[in-house]
Amino acid sequence: MGSYPETNNRVGKLLKKRKSKCTYCGQYFTTEDIMEVDHIIPKSQGEKNTMNNLQLLHRHCHDVKTRLANIDFKEVQDFNKVTENLDEDRCEGLNDI
Ligand SMILES: [Zn+2]
């Protein structure tokens, strides 16, 4: 047993496999972090629930990943159009980003 006695066997195996790092941000998990098991290829795309298809992510990283995966390309194009059409006054103060 490692230093995560409260986690179940699957999570323990994933921690070992990923060297206790979040695959998304590359940071080590701490005991305060909330971890979630993520399917690298969604089950809806026919991928099985195997260890090779699982990774551990921070809960907040999992949220970001899920949100990015749900943005479809058309929305991104519309977003670009919107930002192009902003008049310059409204962009003031954003230049240093
Ligand atoms: Zn993370």
Describe how the helices and strands are arranged.
Layout: H1 9-17, E1 35-39, E2 54-58, H2 59-70, H3 73-85, H4 88-91
Antiparallel strand pairs: 1-2
Write up this protein:
- With 97 residues, this protein is an alpha+beta fold.
- It has a single domain, classed as Orthogonal Bundle (DNA Binding (I), subunit A), CATH 1.10.30.
- It contains 4 helices and 2 strands.
- Strands 1-2 form a two-stranded antiparallel ribbon.
- The model has no long low-confidence stretch (mean pLDDT 76).
- The structure holds zinc ion (ZN).
- Zinc ion is lined by residues 22, 24-25, 27, 57-58, 61.
CATH architectural name:
Orthogonal Bundle
Largest sheet: 2 strands, antiparallel
* Sheet/helix structural class: alpha+beta
Q: Which ranges are low-confidence, i.e. pLDDT below 50, for 5 or more consecutive residues?
A: none
CATH topology: DNA Binding (I), subunit A
Distance from first to last alpha carbon? 46 Å
Number of DSSP-assigned strands? 2
Portion in strands: 5-15%
What is the N-to-C order of secondary-structure elements (H for helix, E for strand)? Answer: HEEHHH
Please report the first level of CATH classification, the CATH class. Mainly Alpha
What's the tally of helices? 4
Strand order of the largest sheet: 1-2
User: What is the helix fraction of residues, given as a range?
Assistant: 25-40%
